[in-house]
Write a structure and sequence with these properties.
Length: about 210
């Protein structure tokens, strides 16, 4: 079981905490991470691209001119795809790109993502940000003390002061423990865990 330091908002060590090996010391397999991240990105696609087909175009269904005797090509109605303003033949329709991988694989991938942060020494456990009111300057001062940029911050519950103070800071994202996912953990260079969120992550992944 790994033991890491718990720091305060001034980057001073205040205690230590244990990180279970079942979550934070799992061998990392890039194939599993890639599979889950690809699934997450596919589920985020809007899939709203669409065109108007022949039946969707406004216009009369009257035959433009008689079939024979004009010397021209045969024509149907004005909504033909061959005519300007007609319907599209093989254009996209709204669809869902979402699919799922097994729950065990998703859970394993999250453990691997968390393990990669500990192994890469980019995981920080903080006791509290100690923000008395929403103020971006105070939040940035804490980040400067920790020497952190481009971080995912995981909280143990709603923290209005932290969420409001961080929303204008680039490359920073605040997530509650129940929303932790593989893509966001890997996307940000650093992972900052509030001490109370560790137990919640354990309860979620060690069922």
């Amino acid at each position: 079981m790994a033991v890491v330091d718990v720091v305060n908002s001034k980057a001073e060590k205040v205690s230590q905490t244990d990180l279970p090996d079942e979550i934070f010391n799992v061998p990392v397999k890039k194939g599993v991470l890639n599979e889950v991240v690809t699934m997450q990105l596919a589920c985020r696609r809007s899939g709203t691209a669409a065109v108007k087909h022949r039946s969707d175009v406004k216009g009369s269904r009257r035959k433009l001119f008689r079939q024979k005797g004009t010397g021209r090509a045969r024509r149907g109605d004005i909504k033909s795809p061959l005519l300007r303003g007609g319907g599209s033949v093989f254009g996209p329709d709204p669809r869902s790109y979402a699919y799922k991988v097994p729950k065990k694989v998703r859970r394993l991938a999250l453990k691997m993502a968390l393990s990669s942060k500990l192994q890469g020494e980019t995981l920080t456990v903080i006791e509290s940000f100690g923000l008395e009111k929403p103020r971006t300057r105070d939040f940035v001062e804490v980040l400067d003390a920790l020497g952190i940029r481009k971080a995912l911050i995981v909280t143990d519950g709603p923290d209005r002061n932290l969420e409001l103070s961080s929303r204008n800071v680039p490359d920073i994202k605040v997530l509650r423990s129940e929303g932790v996912n593989v893509y966001d953990v890997l996307k940000y260079e650093n992972l900052v865990l509030l001490q109370g969120s560790i137990g919640q992550i354990e309860g979620r992944l060690l069922k």
